Every structure is written in structure tokens, then in C-alpha cells.
Amino acid sequence: MVEVYKRNDYYVAKIKYPEANLESAAKFKEDIISFADKGYKFIIVDFSEVVYIDSTYLSALVSTLKYTISKDGDIALTGLNKDLYNLFLMVRLDKVFLIYDELPESFSGSSLRKK
Where are the alpha helices (DSSP H) in the chain? Predict the structure, then answer.
């Protein structure tokens, strides 16, 4: 399950299961695409309750980023524990996603991407 709420000028999609894997990847992708279609342009995915991510989920995450960017939006990440953060570094997804230690107060400009 993904819980979504608005925070200032962006939305937070909090993942509410400990394992982000094959079983949950398709539903996650469907949910994020649905949010983008509803006009939720800037989304931060909160992984604070997640302890494991598999390759299928990583693929779904990249797909949702591409879709959101095509809608003039963006996706960033927060709440990665040390192991998950190291995984993102190892597969170089830190070059693809903005990763925040905690939820920021606000974003300036029209995108989450740092200028």
C-alpha cells in the first residue's frame, strides 16, 4: 500500500510495507502513474518503512520516474536506510533520483531537479 499526502508544494508517497519486491512492484507503478495522471507533479517516495528492495521494484521506480517526467513532473526519494542507500549508490541510481535525508520544507522552481 502507498499512502499519499500533500506537503507544501509536493506530494509524499509513503510506502507502507517492509519489502518492496515483485509482489508489490506492479501496484506501486500503477499507483504512482495514477497520481501523476491526477496532476501530482512532484512526488517524493518515502522508503522509511522499507527494509528490502528487489530489482523488479527498482525497475518500476525508474519507469514511474520516466512517466512522471513525461508529465512535466519529477520524483525524489527519502527515508532510505543505510543498506538501501548503498544499493542505490552501487547501481548508480543516486545519479538518476534526487535522494533526501528527510522531507524538505519546499521546492523552488518548477521541478525537483536541482539547478
Answer: 22-37, 55-70, 82-90
